[in-house]
Amino acid sequence: xxxxxxxxxxxxxxxxxxxxxxxxxxxxxxxxxxxxxxxxxxxxxxxxxxxxxxxxxxxxxxxxxxxxxxxxxxxxxxxxxxxxxxxxxxxxxxxxxxxxxxxxxxxxxxxxxxxxxxxxxxxxxxxxxxxxxxxxxxxxxxxxxxxxxxxxxxxxxxxxxxxxxxxxxxxxxxxxxxxxxxxxxxxxxxxxxxxxxxxxxxxxxxxxxxxxxxxxxxxxxxxxxxxxxxxxxxxxxxxxxxxxxxxxxxxxxxxxxxxxxxxxxxxxxxxxxxxxxxxxxxxxxxxxxxxxxxxxxxxxxxxxxxxxxxxxxxxxxxxxxxxxxxxxxxxxxxxxxxxxxxxxxxxxxxxxxxxxxxxxxxxxxxxxxxxxxxxxxxxxxxxxxxxxxxxxxxxxxxxxxxxxxxxxxxxxxxxxxxxxxxxxxxxxxxxxxxxxxxxxxxxxxxxxxxxxxxxxxxxxxxxxxxxxxxxxxxxxxxxxxxxxxxxxxxxxxxxxxxxxxxx
Length: 503
Fold this sequence. Notes:
Strand content: under 5%
Oligomer: single chain
Radius of gyration: 29 Å
Largest sheet: none
Order of helices and strands: HHHHHHHHHHHHHHHHHHHHHHH
Number of strands: 0
Shape: elongated
Number of helices: 23
């Protein structure tokens, strides 16, 4: 049988050699999908390689060859390294030509990409990485005209891989492409820097890396993620590659890009879609949170966590300025999810949210803005959650809030000299949020909610009252009033000698 196949391939090769260039593209439309799978057979492989080599030489003369891209995209996910690699090679050549059904082609390329390799971002020769580069290149040709057509949704693992790729592209330092290394002044612990294999793959596969081209590439990825979604009407029946809540989360990241053109465009795409989800899902007197809002809260908390599984989050930290904004979005857009979630989702959301607030407030590399956002998120969370959740969060939140306030009292003179006006304002807002958080914890759980001795608390807040001014001082006064009420209401044990010494 192999001999007959080889003889047939010899005849095909002879016809290709005598075929003129104007007929070659139409021949390849049917030939390539049938020819490349024969690479899996050791008997026919040498002859197929000879034919493929001839085709590659011929196609170099075509500035924009028209190839059977959809069939090649299916083959790149098939079994056999030879078939995959040569299919990808022809796909890269065909990417320069016209595409008859680009959305379908992109879906076929992305569907199953996560199953190709276990660790796709650790080698520049990764097939999955090459496919993501190709998708990024092809996305530039996506039409700006909105479409109501539906495509199949990607699986969770594919979505997780694309999410990481999206963030890598948006956070890429162009200086890396010059040195193929991490810029010296970028701290990995305060934001993602694409790993070296990703940078090498980008430099190898995506040609021009001028700032203008990079902006254009980001705008193309924005068009890709919103395909099939709409900015008005019932968002629940929008059908794109990604779940609508994933689209919203990625747009929230892109809306705070360092480039104002990209950030503005992402904001324009985000606002109507976010309104559509909220208006379509919120009903008066709801006893359960809308599924879309619960999913959005879950995605945002996963994105903010460094240790989240890649299928859920990123597995690395976003830059501080982006984390600040995502915490604000979670506070503003997910109130019902935090207040009314139940069951296993409640537990997962509580654990993530508590960890995020503590990391932002107490993290070694948290700046004033991130500490402020963390304290405000903790206050929102402690105010929103039902009573049965309070025992799980009261201790960590009480300890964190008091730690921030004690640190301020011990280092206020140093901070006054070292920080600029904006940083001092953020630190002050952080303390006001911590005062309010202490007040809420004390109201809902009594003095024990602050996890400290009553006399020590009174001494601390009187010291803060002396240090603060204006509305911050009023916030301290409110906490002292709540402490007094709690002492009377709950008959808090009091060390009289210690209290007299304090007075």
